[in-house]
Amino acid sequence: MADAAVRLLALAEGALGAPLPLRIRAWDGSEAGPPDAPLLVLRHRRALRRLLWKPGELGLARAWVAGDIEVEGDLYETLERLSGLIWERDEPQGGLRPLDAVRSLRDPALRRMAREALLLAGPGLPPAPPAEEAPRRGGVRHTLSRDREAIHHHYDVGNTFYERVLGPSMVYSCAYWQQPGGTLEEAQEAKLDLICRKLSLTEGQRLLDVGCGWGSMVLHAAQRYGVRAVGVTLSTEQAAYARKRVADAGLTDRVEIRVQDYRAVDDGPYDAISSIGMAEHVGSAQYRAYASALYGLLRPGGRLLNHQIARRPLEREDAYRVDEFIDRYVFPDGELSPLGSTVELLEEAGFEVRDVEALREHYGRTLRAWVANLETHWPEAVRLTSPGRARVWRLYMAASALAFEHNRIGVNQVVAVKTTTSGDASFPRTRHAWLEPH
Description:
Blueprint: H1 4-16, E1 23-25, E2 31-32, E3 39-42, H2 46-53, H3 57-66, E4 69-72, H4 75-83, H5 98-104, H6 108-121, H7 144-155, H8 159-166, H9 184-198, E5 206-210, H10 216-225, E6 228-233, H11 236-248, E7 255-259, E8 270-276, H12 287-297, E9 298-311, H13 324-330, H14 339-348, E10 352-358, H15 360-376, H16 378-384, H17 387-405, E11 409-417, H18 432-435
Parallel strand pairs: 1-3, 5-6, 5-8, 6-7, 8-9
Antiparallel strand pairs: 1-2, 3-4, 9-11, 10-11
Helix pairs in contact: 1-6, 2-3, 2-6, 3-17, 4-17, 5-6, 9-10, 12-14, 15-17, 16-17
């Protein structure tokens, strides 16, 4: 077989109903497609079997993670060209076994195409998913034990790996790029300082950082603003790393790191709460309880800074489907909600929402910086985790960068206040107090 690429190209264009804007190189060394396009390499027939047994995004993701397909050329350009053909289309529901799918096709041309694909893929059962895939689970989402498992899957993959991707700041959320030529570390410090100013932190106050990660927020607030801070995380590896940073900074008397669910925090009141890139793990069914819990932990007049990724609203919210690749490989049980839903639920909990700032463009640039870090440290990243895990991260961060840049998702900082009964929120009349760094 020396013409596999030609046959693959014809099959792909027949299935998609449009020209494939990529060049293909097949396992037999043959190539087909536009000569100046990015090159999609199918290194093994197994890649085609993955797509036949699981059409759509998940089959393609499995082939990528397993190393059955590769991209030669610009990954961002490749994803741009594929997005309209694959990720923005409805995926097959339920899934059919390949032979059943062939028998179900009534159009003779489609039946011929399906048989051709099966012959080209070769015999064999569906390949096992890559080891990096989280198993699908039934039952109730966002119980305490299930959330711990989800956090473990994503965050407990080695702190050194995260150092290589995130850089010295060890901040895993959207940076705040004040200068066109600024560095990632400068942008992350600017983000942390912006949050401290929005919370109006002053010396001696108590700060709770929900989902504290590797401790960057609590360290910044304690060092620059003199607060006493508590950071909570479900990741044991994060907590160990953060505690060492706190000890090295000589702040053990002012900063405490706990392995604790936000639902178990009971030592309020706090003067301020920050939740930075954590609420995406809460889930829509639990969000009202999340907002109420944070409201109950604040003193009257206290502020919440909720920094959260948002999806675009849909005409029918019950049509929302969790992204299969993200759910299986990146953030199990993660859910995105529209900004309006988040604001509504915060208000229902009793908060007065005082400010919303959209940072969508900032996240695209942040993700591109993380991808660049990963690519710079690629051999070490593979050694520290696995080839599949490193490939998961490269794909998810690059695709997410494009999603932010094309307004498919956004990220917002919401400042909400537990307003006193007199109506006094002790809030500045303008944003001027937030503009100058501390």
